[in-house]
């Protein structure tokens, strides 16, 4: 259910004001779930819809970028814009605009390699840039740092358990019997597109069965438990990001 300024709103009242087909689909799905989606204004809701569609756009672009999957130990980046730290993270050089640095990962993907959680962070930062604009992005994310699930305080992230998966959400496939020699395949973090399509750095855009089949090939000998999609949802705190 969608609630704006403490009043329930039917999607039909909003659909005519939205031209983007993906955003219309998200709106309809929100209205169909039992969850309450609370907003102060219509503009705040529209910002979330925009951010979600931009998250999917960024995921598609990263998928096509040529950026490689690797572990923290072997991560690398374009030295023109980023410093590669000892832990495998990337720190933006002090004289580089954040918008330039983050978009270079898409433009020159072959100069980058990282694991899947950093890939998700990159997608969300690119979506933030597309959604809030270059000027505000550059102010908020000076000296941008990319590493695992470590997000800047100006991109607050929420995590909850539930099954109200919406396009643009970050979801998680767990692999409890992962091969200890390949611990990086203990899980796969993905961007959900809807219609059983997911993007994960290292597996590309696949349906759930394909991702589970892939992870099941990365298990220890004599495994007992299949990989599975978790009922855990990670998403930006859109209401705090909106201004």
The portion of residues assigned to helices is 25-40%
Number of distinct beta strands: 15
Distance between the termini: 23 Å
Poorly predicted tracts of residues = none
Query: What's the rounded overall pLDDT mean?
Result: 96
Can you write the helix and strand succession as a string? EEHHEHEEEHEHHEEEEEEHEEH
Can you walk me through this structure?
The chain has helices spanning 12-15, 21-32, 42-64, 98-107, 116-132, 134-140, 208-216, 238-241; strands at 2-4, 7-9, 37-39, 68-69, 82-84, 90-92, 113-114, 145-146, 157-161, 170-174, 187-194, 197-200, 204-206, 228-229, 232-236. It has 243 residues and is an alpha+beta fold. The chain has a five-stranded antiparallel beta sheet with strand order 13-12-11-10-14, with helices on both faces. It starts with a strand and ends with a helix.
Helices and strands, with pairings:
Elements: E1 2-4, E2 7-9, H1 12-15, H2 21-32, E3 37-39, H3 42-64, E4 68-69, E5 82-84, E6 90-92, H4 98-107, E7 113-114, H5 116-132, H6 134-140, E8 145-146, E9 157-161, E10 170-174, E11 187-194, E12 197-200, E13 204-206, H7 208-216, E14 228-229, E15 232-236, H8 238-241
Parallel strand pairs: 1-3, 4-7
Antiparallel strand pairs: 1-2, 5-6, 6-8, 9-15, 10-11, 10-14, 11-12, 12-13
């Amino acid at each position: 259910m969608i609630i704006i300024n403490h009043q329930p709103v039917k999607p039909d009242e909003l659909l005519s004001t939205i031209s983007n087909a993906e955003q219309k689909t998200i709106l309809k799905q929100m209205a169909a779930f039992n969850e309450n989606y609370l907003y102060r204004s219509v503009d705040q809701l529209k910002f979330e819809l925009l951010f979600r569609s931009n998250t999917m756009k960024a995921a598609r672009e990263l998928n096509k970028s040529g950026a490689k999957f690797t572990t923290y130990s072997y991560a690398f980046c374009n030295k023109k814009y980023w410093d590669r730290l000892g832990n495998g993270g990337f720190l933006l050089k002090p004289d580089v605009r954040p918008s330039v640095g983050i978009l270079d990962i898409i433009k020159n993907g072959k100069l980058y390699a990282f694991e899947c959680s950093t890939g998700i962070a990159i997608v969300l930062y690119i979506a933030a840039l597309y959604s809030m604009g270059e000027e505000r992005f550059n102010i908020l994310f000076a000296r941008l740092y990319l590493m695992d699930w470590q997000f800047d305080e100006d991109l607050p992230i929420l995590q909850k358990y539930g099954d109200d998966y919406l396009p643009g959400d970050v979801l998680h496939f767990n692999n409890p019997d992962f091969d200890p020699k390949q611990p990086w395949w203990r899980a796969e973090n993905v961007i959900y597109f809807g219609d059983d399509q997911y993007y994960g750095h290292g597996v590309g855009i696949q349906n759930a069965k394909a991702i589970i089949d892939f992870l099941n090939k990365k298990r220890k000998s004599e495994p007992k438990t299949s990989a599975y999609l978790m009922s855990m949802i990670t998403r930006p705190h859109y209401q705090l990001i909106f201004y």
